[in-house]
UniProtKB/TrEMBL annotation:
E.C. number: 6.3.3.1
Gene name for this UniProt entry: purM
Domain called PurM-like N-terminal: residue spans: 55-159
The protein's enzyme class: ligase
Taxonomic classification: Bacteria, Fusobacteriati, Fusobacteriota, Fusobacteriia, Fusobacteriales
Protein name from the UniProt record: Phosphoribosylformylglycinamidine cyclo-ligase
Species this protein is from: Leptotrichia wadei
Keywords attached to this entry: ATP-binding, Cytoplasm, Ligase, Nucleotide-binding, Purine biosynthesis
Recorded catalytic activity of this chain's protein: 2-formamido-N(1)-(5-O-phospho-beta-D-ribosyl)acetamidine + ATP = 5-amino-1-(5-phospho-beta-D-ribosyl)imidazole + ADP + phosphate + H(+)
Subcellular location: Cytoplasm
Pathway named in the protein's UniProt entry: Purine metabolism; IMP biosynthesis via de novo pathway; 5-amino-1-(5-phospho-D-ribosyl)imidazole from N(2)-formyl-N(1)-(5-phospho-D-ribosyl)glycinamide: step 2/2
Gene3D superfamilies: PurM-like C-terminal domain, PurM-like, N-terminal domain
Main location: cytoplasm
GO MF term list: ATP binding; phosphoribosylamine-glycine ligase activity; phosphoribosylformylglycinamidine cyclo-ligase activity
One record GO biological process: 'de novo' IMP biosynthetic process
GO CC aspect terms: cytosol
Length: 332
């Protein structure tokens, strides 16, 4: 009796169909530096002309936000989240994202679902000004349940050494500027799924499912516009751990980010009554609360920064200041 790969749970033909469905979309992210075609063994990318280039890389996934996608049968936004979590991180060092690779794993491949997920990855790459140069789709029967997927990504960017942002230039008197989030982004979903069990519940004109699946905002293009005009001393992507854990990552020893909670423009989602079950300290230490990204600049540059962000559709505002102190953040 013979047995095939398909008999063991892996359908190669479905994999070929998946590639065919995404091929033209992926090419839309290519630029003149991409040298490979989809299906190459490795991704080829010309670095271009730099004096002292520093490569900046980052990797991340979407976490249990995927569970919401499974339960609502909406898959076209989680790919954006995957890109966002990677490119926003490397952006914190002033890096221009160059390229992105994804890893998609599942129990049984459905080319319609996988192509929807990659559609989101493509959209994220377009928003993040990066090329989708490759990836891997792994069908793993018996390891993942049928209908469940996991996705992770890897981004590489570049910055001139003299323009690299690492927080070392942050000084007393600098101002912290907040850029709003689009919602929960991709963090705290293990708790969010405990708080919200009915994704069809209506809230503020949308279902809870739609609120939770709102993709993570990608800040690459507006931040690059700022860096063309202003010296940015520090940046932080507000992910898991909220302001409390992420702002200190760009603050030098001996300085402190002084932030009043009252100044934070809390995203409407976090005003849902379900959050009344969560202690205030837990809220601020888990969620972004409406702040997706912060930049730290000299006080004389604040108006310029806010104006540039307004021109790029972002309603940024002053969040706090840098003072002397050993705590690195004082959120009160």
């Amino acid at each position: 009796m013979s047995i095939s790969y398909k008999d063991s749970g892996v359908d190669k033909e479905e994999g070929y169909r998946s590639v065919a469905k995404i091929k033209e979309r992926v090419k839309a992210t290519y630029n003149k530096n991409v040298m490979n075609e989809l299906g190459s063994f490795g991704a080829l990318y010309k670095l271009g002309e730099y004096k002292k280039p520093i490569l900046v890389s980052g990797t991340d996934g979407v976490g249990t936000k995927l569970k919401v996608a499974f339960e609502t049968n909406k898959y076209d936004t989680v790919g954006i989240d995957c890109v966002a979590m990677c490119v926003n991180d490397i952006l914190c060092h002033g890096a221009q994202p160059l390229f992105f690779l994804d890893y998609l794993a599942c129990g049984k491949l459905d080319s319609n679902v996988s192509s929807e997920i990659i559609k989101g990855v493509v959209e994220g790459c377009l928003q993040g000004d990066s090329a989708l140069v490759g990836g891997e789709t792994a069908e793993m029967p018996g390891f993942y349940a049928d209908g469940e997927y996991d996705i992770a990504g890897f981004a590489v960017g570049v910055v001139e050494e003299e323009k690299m942002v690492n927080g070392s230039k942050v000084q007393e008197g600098d101002v912290i500027v907040a850029i709003p989030s689009s919602g929960a982004h991709s963090n705290g979903f293990s708790l969010l799924r405990k708080l919200f069990t009915n994704f069809n519940e209506e809230f503020n004109g949308k279902t809870i499912g739609e609120h939770l699946l709102t993709p993570t905002k990608i800040y690459v293009k507006p931040i690059q516009k700022i860096m063309e005009k202003v010296q940015v001393n520090g940046m932080a992507h507000i992910t898991g751990g909220g302001l409390i854990e992420n702002v200190p990552r760009t603050i030098p020893d001996g300085l402190c980010a002084n932030i009043e909670k009252a100044k934070v423009k809390v995203h409407p989602l976090f005003k849902h009554e379900a959050f009344s079950k969560v202690p205030e300290e837990e809220m601020w230490g888990t969620f972004n609360m409406g702040v997706g990204f912060v930049v730290i600049v000299n006080k004389n540059d604040v108006k310029t920064v806010i104006d540039i962000l307004a021109e790029n559709g972002e309603e940024a505002y002053e969040l706090g200041t840098i003072v002397k102190g050993d705590k690195k953040i004082n959120l009160y």
